[in-house]
Amino acid sequence: MSTTILLVDDHQIFREGMRSLIEKNALGPVLGEAGNGAEAVRLADELKPDLILMDMAMPVMNGVDATREITRKHPGIRILGLSMESSRLFVVEALKAGATGYLLKDCAFAELADAIATVARGETYLPQKIAALLVKEFLQCIPQEVNVVYETLTAREREILQLIADGKCIKDIGFNLGISIKTVENQRQTIMQKLQLFSVAELTKYAVRNGLSPLS
What we know:
The chain is an alpha/beta fold. The protein contains ten helices and five strands. The protein folds into two domains: 5-129, Rossmann fold; 143-209, Arc Repressor Mutant, subunit A (Orthogonal Bundle). Helix content is 57%, strand content 11%. The radius of gyration is 26 Å and the shape is elongated.
């Protein structure tokens, strides 16, 4: 079954060229065209296409707001955002609004065809350049939030934390490490203070969630 498509862009010549290429290559029937976000919302209600190619920068109502409104009303409609912008901010805003994919307007038609097929299957499509940008920022920012606090623990405190996460009681930890029960209790308290956690259950969840225990 072919994918029905709605084209949304404020430049008529762009829509006409896109429509010609889509129909020539049998990517799916184009049900209609819209020149702004408000028209896109109206036509989405009326035509209920499977997929919308949505320009992100348009007058009257921009593509992000139109995407948010359409996906709220019609969660089954998939939206592939189109833009000249490759910055993280634009991409994230489009995806948060409900877009299933994001494509740069300067791409080759072969990539557009691939993106349409991917989004039509319900999968997310991001160009390699944008995906690499998002992954790079994730690797630079997210792990730091986890590691900065964890790195304040001493090697012994990390060892005790892992043993707690493995389900070892204080007596067993002391026996395994050759230290007194009192020392284990003191160090457990220090770990809790450093991590701002207040129970053994919270310590265990922290260790597992951040890959500090074999249970993860």
